[in-house]
C-alpha cells in the first residue's frame, strides 16, 4: 500500500491544525478566505500563523490556548498554516507590515489594523505561560 506525500503531510499536520481549531479558531486556507475575513473584521481579531516547528508546538499553540482562557478575548479568531496553506499565509502576512515573515507568529488586529505582534524569536525562547501573559495583556489593552 503506498501513500502519497501530500496525504502523508496532511495526516501529519492535522493534529497541529486541530490544536487551534478545537479552541474555536477558524482556518483561513486560501487568499480569498483571508480577504473575506481580515479587512472587514470589526473589533479585534487574533491571527495565529501556525507551523510544524517545535516552538509552535511547545510554546505558541499552548500559549494561545492559555491566553484564550482570559476574561477578555478577541472578537474573531483566525489561523493560517505556514508551509501548508502558503498563499493564504502570504496574504495574511500582508497585514502584518512592517514585520517580516515569521512562523510561528501571532498577530492581534483591531478594525483591520495591526496593534500587537509576536514574532518567532519572541516565541522560541519563552514559555507558553509567558506568551499567554503577553497575549492577555494585549487582549486587556485592545479588546475591551
Automatic annotation (TrEMBL):
Annotated InterPro entries: BrxB/BrxA
Matches recorded under PANTHER family: BACILLIREDOXIN BRXA (PTHR40052:SF2), UPF0403 PROTEIN YQIW-RELATED (PTHR40052)
Pfam families according to UniProt: Disulph_isomer
Protein name per UniProt: BrxA/BrxB family bacilliredoxin
Similarity annotation: Belongs to the bacilliredoxin family.
